[in-house]
Design goal:
By secondary structure, the chain is an alpha/beta fold. It is built from 15 helices and 22 strands.
Amino acid sequence: MGGIAALAQAQGYRVSGSDANVYPPMSTQLESLGIELTEGYTAAHLNPPPDQVVIGNAGIKRGNPELEAVLDQGFDYLSGAEWLARHVLRERWVLAVSGTHGKTTTASLLAWMLEYAGLKPGFLIGGVPGNFGVSARLGEGPFFVIEADEYDTSYFDRRSKFAHYRPRTLILNNLEHDHADIFADLAAIKRQFHQLVRAVPGNGLIIANAADGNVADTLAQGCWTPAEPFLGDAGGWQATDAAPDGSAFDVRFNGEKLARVEWQLIGAHNVANGLAAIAAARHAGVPVETAAAALGEFAGIKRRLEVRGEVRGVTVYDDFAHHPTAIATTLAGLRQRVGAARILAVVEPASATMRAGVHRDALGPALAAADRVWCYRSATLKWDPAEALAGRADVIDSINELVAAVAAEAQTGDHVLVMSNSGFGGFHDKLLSALRLPPR
């Protein structure tokens, strides 16, 4: 929604908004753009009366006082995804990045490739790419890159947000059961993704992960668009001769080597993200050699294995991982990078699916690559991590106590990986501050 606010402002609208518990990087982005953000919800925020109200899906439901005022006073309203479709995506070449994991990274890589090639794309991404410093912009050319989220659109539109986007280029990165508050099971997710597949025109392109059986199942329901596979055993897009940590790989298409990538990102998951982005950029006219060169100058993304600081030889990372698969792949990539150095993992099960306990049995095995693990037990958890992670993690109820425990354990040469999709009560800054204190 912060990105949508930035796009609306760029179109000349006067924009303000209401939200609760906003944290960086979005809060700082809105502040830098001069967009007025008011904490909390009240009918008073609708004075003077707005010409249009754009309603997000995060916690906005019947009973919200500001929403009730919108309905009672008859204001014109629509969802964020519908606003995008009407005011931004219409008449654009939409390149949509979908999947359970890797959307933000892959969309950021793709936008940067188009920018590097001089195409000046617009984009809306759920993170802040370092090469741009913002999560959204209108762009100047026909191309618009969007992170195609499967979460529902709003309280009054239960379709996935990507149902509004109508892409010409679509990446299907991977599929797993997630968002258990929205989708009863994996089959329900596949049905929504197939609706997205149905929207891609016959002269478009679908870039599909051939190593993911759930993606294959979705396409098997019917596909009317040419598809190029990546990560398959033969044909399509492949990454070969990769460095152990994923920091370099060859790009091949139908067996022919087209380029070599050497970049700052690590992990097999990011190799897959980079390969998919290269394929999508090629569909938009970017030569593979140019796309590979762009990856070499990619500056990373906030909250995606972002180094938040180093104190006394202890490196602290911030990562958005909020699903066992993402946690395991992030840890695996970091392990390849740091070798035998200790990894101290701190996890907050903060997403709706994690809080509900859907993945409780998978969380412990996903953390196996870490040398020490702490889990924050918030009051909103509907399961007991002390039971589920018995023998695998220290479970602590207080953020301040958690900071103290990790700071006391950390030694020179350690890598502290903090994984959460919330603001985590400012844990990262509190830990860095604690590490700066003289040892007791």
